Amino acid sequence: MGFARHAFGPRWAAASVLTALALAVAACGGGGNGSDLTESPVASLKLIGTASLPTGTVFEGVEFGGISGMDQATDGSYWAISDDRGGERGTPRFYNLSIDYTATGPVTVKINRQTFMQREDGSAFPATARTVDPEAIRLAPNGNLYWSSEGNWGTTAATLFQPFVREMTPAGRFVREFKVPAIYNYVDNTTTGGRSNKLFEALTVATDGTVFVANEDALIQDGPITTVQAGSVVRVTALDPATGASKAQYAYQLPKIPVDAPAGAPFGPDNGLSDFLAIGKKKFIAVERAFASGIGNTIRLVLTEITDSTTNVSSIASLAGGATYTPMTRKLLLEMPITYQGVKLDNIEAITWGKTLPNGHRTIVLAADNNFTATTQANQFIVFEVLPE
After folding, report:
1. Helix (H, G, I), strand (E, B) or coil at 350
2. How far apart are CA 272 and CA 287, in angstroms?
3. What pLDDT digit, counting tens, does each position of 335-351 carry?
4. Which letter, b or e, does each residue of 143-174 get, where b requires 16 or more Cβ atoms within 10 Å of its Cβ?
5. Which residue(s) pair with 96 in the sheet?
6. How many other C-beta atoms can be found within 10 angstroms of the C-beta atom of residue 87?
7. Burial zone of 243 (CB within 10 Å; 0-12 exposed, 13-18 middle, 19+ buried)
8. By CB count within 10 A, which of 81, 110, 167, 323 is most buried?
9. What pTM was computed for the model?
10. For 17-63, what is each residue's pLDDT tens digit?
């Protein structure tokens, strides 16, 4: 758990051309991240193995951790983004990792390199102040990277930064910013708009190149966040990779929190949409991550789809109360309570396709945000074989 100005610069036209060319390549069967126009059937998942890098691991002089998003690169390595906002462990950054395994394990993880994200002017985000909250990263069809930020809620102009979805090069250079709907923006953190630390956790690229982004828990105007008594609803927005504009928006229903925190816990339990992975044009595997202090994490992987009957909620100002709409479908794929097949689950916030096994089955890799907490958490990676039927 991560606990965005919408403008297009002079590189926008060139970026649009690159994106259009890349989408043409993808339409011919090219592109990474499963980016052909076929759907990947997912009937069930089989655990292959896990690996962990201990909290406190230092790479190139900076503590590694906070992995909140991950995606497979075209060469088989993985892009992984840290949710270090600046003012914490260092400059906001992303990594390239190698994750190796066979059909029966073991799983090994290696850090290859570290790269700082850059602002529009080419400078790195500051290491000593919170100006961004990186939460998700995906490979773009043209070889660049999409990434999202929850922004940073603050009561002054100097401390408030809005959420965003941007495109950058693999070297971290700014390319463009998508025009996400203003409904997500921070207003007052009380009556309307985004809730602090509850915004763009989930980001994925569909097989036709459409970029989808979603908030972690309900916007203020869409009702209360999840509790042990009731669920909530989040908005999944489809972004056009050619124009950068929003094409449509859909509602995804989060269930109530499955396990309560004990009396006297330092903070209450929560549940949220921490990431999702496109397995078709409008089909996804959603990661629902619930946490109860002193007990642990419950992770649900859910098959969800935008169907012909799913309502485009772009024009619905509030999804609370008497709002009428049909949400995305929801079918439980795998529920992993606190300890699953001997694995104590951590704060899973990332999902990506992995390698294809010799038997032709694809794999999925999950990763945890360790919150840089040495006493109770680690940088956990979990690998599953996808059983198509």
Report:
1. strand
2. 8
3. 999 999 999 999 999 99
4. ebbbbbbbbbbeeeeeebbbbbbbbbeeebbb
5. 79, 113
6. 14
7. middle
8. 81
9. 0.91
10. 344 434 333 333 333 444 445 788 999 999 999 999 999 999 999 99
Would you state the structure tokens that stand for residue 342, as one six-digit string?
């001997």
Cα-to-chain-centroid distance, residue 326:
24
Tokens coding 108: 């090994």
Q: Distance (Å, rounded) from C-alpha 111 to C-alpha 109?
A: 7
Half-sphere exposure of 244 (CA within 13 A, CB side): 21
Asked if 180 and 152 count as a contact pair (C-beta separation under 8 A), the reply is: no
**What's the token pair of residue 34?**
């499963």
Amino acid at residue number 249: Q
Q: In what order do the strands lie in the sheet with 145-149?
A: 134-139, 145-149, 164-168, 174-177
What is residue 378's three-state secondary structure?
strand
d(CA 224, CA 153): 18
Four-CA torsion 329, 334, 335, 337, nearest 10 degrees: -150
**Cβ atoms within 10 Å of 308's Cβ, excluding its own:** 6
Alpha-carbon gap, residue 292 to 265, rounded angstroms: 9
What is the helix (H) or strand (E) element at residue 18, kind and residue range? helix 12-27
Question: Burial, 214: exposed, middle or buried (Cβ in 10 Å; 0-12, 13-18, 19+)?
Answer: buried
DSSP letters for 103-137:
TT---EEEEEEEEE-B-TTSPBPPSSS----EEEE
Cis bond before residue 106 (omega within 30° of 0): yes
